[in-house]
Structures are given as structure tokens and as C-alpha cells.
Amino acid sequence: MRIHCPYCGERPAEEFTFQGDADVRRPQGNEPSQMDEWFDYVYLRENPRGRMKEYWHHSGGCRSWLIVERDTDSHEVFGVTAARERKLSPQRKRAS
Amino acid sequence: MTYSVFSLLKNAVTGHKNWAPAWRDPAPKPAYDVIIVGGGGHGLATAYYLAKVHGITNVAVLEKSWLGSGNIGRNTTIIRSNYLFPGNNPFYEWSMKLWEGLEQDFNFNAMVSQRGVLNLYHSDAQRDAYARRGNAMHMHGVDAELLDEQGVRDMYPFFNFDDARFPIRGGLLQRRGGTVRHDAVAWGYARGADSRGVDVIQNCEVTGIRIEKGVVKGVETNRGYIACNKLGLAAAGNSSEVAKMAGLKLPIESHVLQAFVSEAIKPFIDGVVTYGAGHFYVSQSDKGGLVFGGDIDGYNSYARRGNLPTVEHVIEAGVSMIPAISRVRVLRSWGGIMDMSMDGSPIIDKTDVKGLYLNAGWCYGGFKATPASGWCFAHTIAKDEAHKLSAAYRLDRFKRGFAIDEKGMGAQPNLH
Fold first, then answer.
1. What is the overall mean pLDDT for chain B?
2. pTM of the complete model
3. Which CATH architecture has domain A2-23+51-95?
4. Terminus of chain A with fewer CB atoms < 10 Å: N or C?
5. Which class is domain B117-179+254-340?
6. Do B252 and A45 touch (CB under 8 A)?
7. Distance (Å) from the C-alpha of residue B224 to the closest C-alpha of chain A?
8. What are phi and psi for residue A67, nearest 5 degrees?
């Protein structure tokens, strides 16, 4: 599996560290009434078979956080963007 | 038919032409009392104990592929009960006790071999952690021995004891641990369930779960709709996908774990050994191949095959532990999909949907748990309540703050 880092070019996957689902959203506040949101954020995962957006860290390279869109069934990588360039909607809905 | 030395002799003199199939190949009936989704070890064991212990025989096990095509035939066949936490240890020890009587119980040779499981340590801190674990095991009535370096040298003199970075200082040994022929576990449970009236239905993929007013009614399959009163999910790596059909989102990620077998060599390692420095575990099969594995690849996957960096890492760890195997050739490698839970511990529980039960989250420790998992899941389905041995494995434990995190890694499934 090779990942095309926007800064370093195509690099082998062992240079990267996997963090997980990039579509989970950290709740904005920490009120007791938001318990369910936090539970969802920390513990529950869509875990799709097929396309998935994931955070990968180029820990053995430029140390940038990346969003990799990948197929969990075939390991095909569709696209890589820098996580810092991601535009989050004000409502912090799930990214499309 | 009961298998015995007499049945073997009788069939030997008739040229082995008259053996009956070990289980039927039934077509699905329109309705069952209980349907189990997943014809792997846990699903088949559940059906077996539902029939044998609870007398519930109007049961179907639905398997989308052939019987035992998933993780029951993809693991490294290790059994052990060397767990630390109270929620885990009695459960896995019951599993070990069931292993010890399993072949007589289901009349099938599963080649249960209590050859011992040895976990090596390399430092004072690791020794202390293993001493603590061994003491916890003793307090639960489980056997454990802490070996010093000489104790390990007596068993395996060819290990790399004097490595500068990871010297081997000793190990924690559970002599009752060992290996089991994994395919025979699936076959033995299937045969035992089938002979008690359970329908084991292969090539029957569940494509939907019908729920009306919060109550399970049945499943849609590629062989038509099948009604049921109770539905148990035991789909391992596919748990999230199956649970989605019932509207559930699980605390699980699916990851690929690779395993390997070498060419056959003469008798070399007579037990199961794990390396504390890297994650590496090895035993030798009766055919002579070294069966070994390491960590999961570390990224979400449903692919049943991994990538080469993990292959390289596992083999480096193996050669670091046993330099003598450096020229042994790898014969095969394969992958299985692990249902990695958020705390590294499994889930056996009811769900919010009436009549829907969940058995999932086995990470890469599901094989050793097969008998107890079936035992407790059958109890949960039959009695509609948790078994006392699996009482800690509730689905809502994450929300309540009762995670069982043996490894202390937090909610990061690829680190468990």
C-alpha cells in the first residue's frame, strides 16, 4: 500500500501511522447533557466495508496529518489531502 | 454415528467407502426458534450448546460461505487463560475447562494439545508485570509459573538469550495452555449441533434483518426470507456490517491480522512461545511447520490479506527471538478480519432490539474463547439474560465507564 503525501510524494505505508476514522466529530462542549455525543465520538464507529476517510500521520516523513480516502475492502487509495486544509462546516456535521 | 476405535476399524476393513457425512446439508425452513448468523466457531458452538444444554433444537446457523471459512480456520490455534482482569479471567478459564473435555463431549478429535504457553520477558518491569499477572491467575485458581532465565534455557536453549537490546530474562508459563486443531473445532461443533437437530446452512448470506416495532421477526437471505423468534449475531470481522442491518452502530473497527506457516522442519519447538519484545508468537504444528503471527496491520480492513511491512516486521521479530529459523522458508501467509473492540474485550449481550443478541468484539483472541463464548451466548439467548461469566461483556459498558482494557491502550482499537 502506497500513500501519496501532498508534500513528500508517493511513499510506502510503513512511513505513516494510522489514527482512525476521519469522519468522527469531537463535540463542541462538555456539558453532562452531551454525554451521548461524547460516547458516540469516543467509542462508536461506522466501520464501513468500502470507501472510508481516515487520518494518517506521516510520522516517518514530514509529520503532517493527512486525510486518506481508501477502500477498506481492496486497500485502494483514492485521494490524500492535508488535514489542515479541510473545511469543517460550522455545524460540524459529518463530512461528505 | 458415534466415532470410536470400532467405527474406525469397521470402516477401515470396508475401504473407508461407507463413512456417512458428518452433517446434513439442509435447505432453510420458513421459520426457526433461533437463527445464528455466522457459521464460524462461535456461531456453531452457540448452536451446539443451545441444543445440548438448553434443549433448544429448532435452530439454524446461517453461513454466507462454507462452514469455518472465516477466523476459525485462520488463527494460530493457541488456547490459554492467562488473563489479568476479574471480568476476563473466569470466562477464559471456563473456556479452558471446556477445551479440556471438549473432544469427549462432542465426540470429535480436535487434537487438543496442552503443550504449554510461555510468555517471555526481557526486563525487570516486564517480569513484575508477569508476576502480577501470574498472581492474578493463581487467585482465580488458574495455573501459572514464573520462570527465570535458567528455567527458559532448560526448555529452549536455542533462543537468543544474550541479545543486547532484548535479553531473555525468563517467562510466564501456563502449562495447561496449548494448541487445538482449529478446523476440527468447527467440524466437531457443527456435527454435534447437526446431530441434535440444528440446521447448519452454508452458502446462505444474510442481506437484511426484519424488525417490527422493536422486535426481531426474521432475516432476508440470498435463499429467501427466514423467520425467527430470536436472532444471534456472531459475524466476527463483519459484525459492524451485519449490525447495521439492524440499525446498530458498534464500538468496533475491523482490522486485518496476518498469520504464517513455514515449511515443515523436524521437531523444534514443543510448546507455544510469545516474544515480549516484539509481538510474535510461534508453535510447531504436527506436520512440522512453524505456525506464527504478530500484530494486526493497524489500519481498517475487510480484505483478508495484509501488506508486506507487517510480514517483514513479524519475521524480524521471529528471527530476533530464534536466530536459528533465519533460513527457514515461509510456506504460506494469510489474513483474517478481526472485530477490534474499543477496549480489547468482547461483547456478549442482548441489544435494544427485542430478540436480537450480539456476540462480537473478539479482537484477535477469539479462538481460545470459542467454547465459553458459545456457552455464554447460548445462555444469553435461551434465558434472555447475561451469563455470570460474561456479565462484564455488556454492550453498554463503554457508556457506563466499565471498559475492560487488559492492555491499557484506551479507545484505540488498532493498539489492543
1. 97
2. 0.95
3. 2-Layer Sandwich (3.30)
4. C
5. alpha beta
6. yes
7. 24
8. -110, 115
